Amino acid sequence: MARQIIFTTSIITSILKNENLEKEILKELQTHEDLKQGRVRSNFGGFQTNDITNKSILEPLGNETVRLIFENYKIKANKINMNNLWINKNYKNNFNNLHVHPRCHLSAVYYVDVSEKGGELVFRREDCIFTEQNLFIPNDMDFDDSFTIKPKKNLLIIFPSHLKHMVQPHEDDRPRISVSFNIGFENG
């Protein structure tokens, strides 16, 4: 009898260098902080803006994301929408709890400023029955229950919205800044 792989999950990673985009993100973040226009969702500490509509941010991120989606996935939808977009600023020891992004197909994160000490993005599988009793061999792709990405400046990550994920705390004194957004597909 042969072993068969029945499910796979992929993410897309790319580097997007754009100085104007970075400046616009930092300017928008500062405006929201000055006006105290923030919210708490999965963030524990730090600052998260409300959804933003700044086209100088939406367009470059949206254009690159659409290009990468069509380059990497077979999508039948004839319309791709950026459902919402927000900016995250995590200070030392801040983190984001384990969560998913409902009512969308893909989610993404773009890193503006990162930490050298922590702040990793962790995707978690909670369907792995062997993890409870430590019966699996660590790093065995069939039974590993997490996948960790060390953020890099200008890194763009696109992933299925149903994937549970979290952001670990970081230890740098300077804040970690990222932009998160959700993507939906439509026919019609």
How many alpha or pi helices?
Answer: 2
CATH architectural type:
Sandwich
What does the radius of gyration come to?
17 Å
Annotated CATH homologous superfamily: q2cbj1_9rhob like domain
CATH topology category name: Jelly Rolls
Number of domains: 1
Whole-number mean pLDDT: 89
Class per helix and strand makeup: alpha+beta
Strand-residue fraction? 25-35%
Weakly predicted, low-confidence segments: none
Beginning-to-end CA distance, first to last residue: 45 Å
Number of strands: 12
Spatial arrangement of strands, main beta sheet = 1-10-7-12-5-4-2
Q: What percent of residues adopt helix (DSSP H or I)? A: 10-25%
| Top CATH class | Mainly Beta
Shape: globular
Q: Biggest sheet, in brief? A: 7 strands, antiparallel
Fill in the keyword field for this structure:
Jelly Rolls; seven-stranded antiparallel beta sheet; five-stranded antiparallel beta sheet; 2 helices; 12 strands; 18% helix; alpha+beta; 188 residues; single chain
Note down, in words, how this protein is organized.
This protein is an alpha+beta fold and 188 residues long. It has a single domain (12-186), classed as Jelly Rolls, CATH 2.60.120. The chain contains 2 helices and 12 strands. The chain has helices spanning 19-34, 55-72; strands at residues 12-15, 38-39, 43-44, 47-49, 79-90, 95-99, 106-113, 121-124, 146-149, 155-160, 164-167, 176-186. The strands form 2 sheets. A 7-stranded antiparallel β-sheet has the order 1-10-7-12-5-4-2, with helices on one face. It has a 5-stranded antiparallel β-sheet with strand order 3-6-11-8-9, with no helix packed on it. α1 (19-34) packs across α2. The longest helix is centred in the middle third of the chain and has 18 residues, at 55-72. The chain is globular. The mean pLDDT is 89.
